[in-house]
Structure prediction request, 186 residues.
Amino acid sequence: MTQWLRSSLNCTATAMALAYGTSVSAQSAPTSATDITREQIQTVLASMGESIDRQLKIADIGGGENVGVGILHRDGDNDTDGAHRGIIHAQVTEVYIILSGGGTLLTGGDIIDPTEPSAGSILIGPTFSGQSRNGQIREISEGDVVVIPAGVLHAWTLIPDEVTYLSVRIDPHLALPAGYVNPEIR
Prediction:
């Protein structure tokens, strides 16, 4: 899985760079890469306790954009029990890379009864919730990659056992603090 994980991250980073068409001047270009090792991912995952989402690192990728990478682990207690209610990140696009397990994922649709946006967090920036009408529902499992653009509702409606995944968070609005490193891996 290590080779698969490396390949997935490289493909995801390349695809996102092409999709956003980021032009970076020599002055603002980062001068080094940000690595996240398998051991660092495992350390944070093992220390999560009751949390379902922990940011690993956030990097400045130049051109006024940041990228965060988080590790998430959910079980059946962390789904919506079939309800079509989810969250919407106002400024951050997420790319889910499913490492193990799976479940039923709802994305998109018309947003009904939205809440007021939160101020945001180190994880996902400003976020609100709402109900989805006519969203896409599908089974997601190990090896799948899902791109969830900013502004798109998403929720795990059913997790039969568990799902563990990386979330690559594309942040063109600098809502996430560049240079952040999870205290467990400093």
Observations:
- Residues 101 and 123 are 22 Å apart (CA to CA).
- Residues 2-20 form the longest helix (19 residues).
